[in-house]
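User: Quick sanity check before I run a bigger batch. Here is a single chain. Can you write out its predicted 3D structure?
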Amino acid sequence: MAWGWRHGKLSMLGVAMAMSLLAATWFQISVAGMPVNVRTATAIIFLTAFTFHSPRLIFSPLTLIDCVVACLVLWHMVVDAYFGEPVFWTFAAAYGEWVLPYAAGRYAMLHRDALSELSPWFVGVGAFLACAACLEACLGINFWESLFTKVDGEVLRSSGKRFGIYRAIAATRHPLFLGTAFLLLIPWAMSLIDSSSNNPKRRHAGVLGLVAILIGLVATVSRGPLVGLICGGVFLLTIKSRVARWMALVLVLVGAVLVVASHDEILQFVDISTKGEDRPIGWIVDVNGEARHFTGPRNRLLILELYGPIVLRGGAFGYGTENSSGFPPKNIPGLPNDIKAREQLGIVDNSYLNMGLRFGCVGFALLVALLMITTATALRLTRVAGTYFYPNGPATLFAFAAIVVAYAVEIGTVFFHYDHRFLLLFTVGVIAGLQSQYRILRRGL
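Assistant: Done. Predicted structure follows.
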């Protein structure tokens, strides 16, 4: 806050949101039955301050992303009200879940130098989290647990090693959540590098920050974020080069043939190479009367096979927040009869299935639309970035587009949890805010 008073009150919101990432996500209290942690509280406080300080900016030009987020909030309310939830609390929950993080990112961008001013803060936070993750990977000591309080049991995670090192969680509840958070911090490092111009210190800081964030991502020893990062990089290459597009197409076709021809061998190799020290290489589960081999990698396939038809049977409305919550989901028809199998397949590690179970086919479609429209918006803004977002240029917006694609790939293997969903919506808000800022500047408002 002191920094904001000295350098400009409009940047206070963005700086506060960056610093809130340093608080562990399990630091929370319950307000009227709803969990409120440091990130949510920070967004509430500083968005309120923004409202009083810059009320005219609240009515900045709307974007297509704003419309999709509004539809998500509306559909959340419609579905949960349909399943008997109180309307007022449903609105409060929908607002807190979707609007708060999105609005924080959107309004943090509504001043001329937002990207260049906020980049060092997000990169610094990312570097700190990466250092903590590396310490945890080597020694098995979590900084936040050691100094404050133990992580809660909301999310189950393996405490063993993978490839000889501990899987870091840092300020999140699970290594996959942390890896996803590091993915979403990469564009800020690219922004710092892109805006360095003739400032070698700023450029060096950006490069070191990017390296630190990538090392932190590796310290989670999670496959999903790395696969997503590779896919994001390939997407960026295909955008820039026609040759890369053809090469990517050939690689996809060859990969598909290999997967079909050597499906079992590939799964067996992944099972053995990723086995933790605290668990065997899989076990047998009974899925609706059929014995199936269950391991971490195979779990994603079994979940898709089990829950995909259930999502389709849920139709447009799905099953609502209350019915689809819990591990396994509380009141979803079609789950395995065997209790052990229900528990082992109870964590739906697929964000798209999570949305389908909770809000039906419409919720699934809205999530896909949000990711696609955000990517397309970032790509469109690359054409004007050098003029309207100087000293940042097209490279920053290309990085944001590529990382949204990487995230879209990665969340097919992870539960759609608050720990990374908040940062996604903040990032989506950043892109929407940049588009709104562009329209303000173009109109000379």
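The first strand starts at residue 28 and ends at 31.

User: Great, the batch can go ahead then.
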